[in-house]
Amino acid sequence: MGIPEVVVHDEMTKWADRYGTPLYIYRLEAVREAATALLRSIPEEACLYYSLKANPHPALVRELVSLGIRAEVSSTGELAAALTAGTPTAEILFTGPGKTDAALREAVGAGVRRFSVESAAERTRLAAAARARGARVEYLVRVNAATARAGGVGLRMTGTPSQFGIDADQLDTLPKLFAADDATRPFGFHLFPATNITDPSALHREFEASAATVAELMRRTEFEPSMVDLGGGFAAPFAKPGPLPDYAGLRRSLSAELDRHLPGWREGRPAVAFESGRYLAAACGTLLTTVLEVKRSGGRTYAVLDAGTHVLGGMAGLGRILAPGAEPEPVGTPENEPVSLVGPLCTPLDVLSRAAVIGPVEPGDVLCIPNTGAYGLSASLLGFLSHPVAAEVVLDGDRDIDTRQLRLTPVALKASEGSPI
Ligand SMILES: *Cc1c(COP(=O)(O)O)cnc(C)c1O
């Protein structure tokens, strides 16, 4: 991440006067513009999901949903935002690694019927959650395709050893994953090899490789998907000026590849879907921050702002800072192969340890990571130094139609009332 450029427009500073800083302003016109441009860049027959991860503000989600875009959520918090925004539950897709049983039950209970499963075990847990609610649900099989490759890739999610999806070469050994049971039905494939690909031809190659992978998987598994979600990759500038990339040529070139690899897609056999977070949300936002002090030291000038990495770019810190290298107490004979300890966040950077030597671990094991009393929760970016969270104001034209501030308020818990697993 470069140093964020501070662009203070006169018309923006009046909002800072009114609401204070740090303050995020989201302009709905820019949401509409980005959505229109992206919908024109993908084939007309395809559908588009908005990944709430990029910005779960319900006012943005409501705007995108009103333009025919669907919601892709990865947590119960994002699900709540999608529901608050009035998203039709039938159109919500629940994705992401590390879904808890409680989250699956809550989502099914709220009416979500479409999921992406990251493993055979997760499908089993999804089926249990569906049965518990007397519902039938559908799932995409998330695939880690070894073949997808393109240069100019911002952040590679799969195509390498990864916590996401199921390696394509393991799918042959999982025939049950492609057959319905009493509570679940497979309805397609989900691929999401990479993100933030600025070059339209590199992005084209990535989608082309994914479409070819799907065609090959269809042959190998004899499974006829009703939907193929080819993921995203649409880039956006971050914290610096500049326009969104122009992907207008993709519609035609992608349509030709889909004709070649997935004939029938124009009639919805399979329906083709794409996903985007940053392209849809990035351009609408402006962060307003106040310089608190300017000082000189050792020949340099420092401007102390009221917005730090707890307000902007915290996730970039995950890339810059080494994984914490957590060493939990061993749970078995620690001679076994090292284990990568990863979290539930939808980014390959969400790593607690690349190689923890802790013995064979199983679902349900509780790991004890010692010495985490200092800079544990308090070093999570929103919690660090207990600063107030930046405020958010949504503008429609010159009207502030929605203003809010997240509050991190501690509440007393009764026994067994924490986040259930
Ligand atoms: C993060 C994520 C996205 C959105 O990525 P952007 O780069 O913001 O468009 C889409 N799909 C999945 C599965 C993701 O994890």
Put the structure in a nutshell.
With 421 residues, this protein is α/β, with parallel strands linked by helices. Helices cover 26% and strands 21% of the residues.
Molecular structure report:
The chain has ten helices and 19 strands. It is α/β, with parallel strands linked by helices. It has two domains: 28-280, TIM Barrel (Alpha-Beta Barrel); 283-404, Beta Barrel (Lyase, Ornithine Decarboxylase, Chain A, domain 1), CATH 2.40.37.10. It has an eight-stranded parallel β-barrel with strand order 2-3-4-5-6-9-11-12. Strand 14 and strand 15 form a beta hairpin. Helix 2 crosses helix 3, helix 5 crosses helix 6 (120-132) and helix 7 (200-221) packs parallel to helix 8. Pyridoxal-5'-phosphate binds next to strand 12 and helix 9. Residues 51, 53-54, 95, 192, 195-196, 231-232, 234, 275-279, 346 line the site of pyridoxal-5'-phosphate.
